[in-house]
Amino acid sequence: MSERYDFVVTSGGIGPTHDDITYKSIAKAFDLPLVLHKEAYALMKQISKPKPGHPDFNWDEDSPARRAKLRMVELPTDASRPLEEQFLFPCKDLWVPIAVVNGNVHILPGIPRLFTQLLKGMAPAILPRLTDPEGKGIVRVSMLTPLTESTVAEYLSELAERVEPKGVKVGSYPRWGKKKNIVTLVGRDKEYLETITPEVLESVKGTLITPGKEEELEDEEEES
Length: 224
Prior knowledge:
A hairpin with a 3-residue loop joins strand 5 and strand 6 (105-108). 38% of the residues lie in helices and 19% in strands. It has two domains: 8-130, Molybdenum Cofactor Biosythetic Enzyme, Chain A (3-Layer(aba) Sandwich), CATH 3.40.980; 139-223, Alpha-Beta Plaits. The protein is built from nine helices and ten strands.
C-alpha cells in the first residue's frame, strides 16, 4: 500500500500490552530498527498522570510497567530520513507521536478520540497534498437534512439515476442519535455539481456543510 498510495494510515496496536505489535510489525516490514524516541518519552513522563488507586510508579527504576510504557515510544526509525519528518506531534496536549514510515505510512492509535484528534491535527500538513490545482480531482458536496432516509429515498433514487451519466454519485448517510442525516454529491465536474446543489438542498430541506466546518454545524444542531 505504501508503494501504491500517497497517504496510508494504520489504527491501533501501539499500546503497552503483548498484542500491541503495530510498531514491531511495520518496523519488520520496512527492515527498520525500533529506537527509543527521547522526545516522546520525555513528553510521556511530563504529561502522563497517575491514576487513583494505582500503585506508585517510578520512571527511573526498571520494572515490567516501565518496560511496557517504553514499548509505546520505541518507534520504527530510518536513519537516512530527517527525524522531524518521521515523528509528528500535531497536538500539544498529547505525548503520542504520529510515526511516519517510508514517507507516507502514518501510525495512529486506535482509541477513536485520540485517532480523530491527531488526524485533525495533521490537517494543515495533509490538505496541501490533496489540492488539485487543475480542478480535475474528486469534488464532494455534503449537506445536513432533517428528513429521514425513507422520506428522501424516492427523490434521491430519481436524482441518482438522473446524474449518473454526468459521473455523479449520490449518497445518503443516517447519523445515529442525531437530529439530521447527511446527503452527499460526489463527482469530478465541479461546475455541474454547483448547478444541481440548490435543487438538492431545496428538495431535502438541507443545510450545506462547508468543508472544515462540520463541528460548527454539530454545535448548531445541538443548540436547536
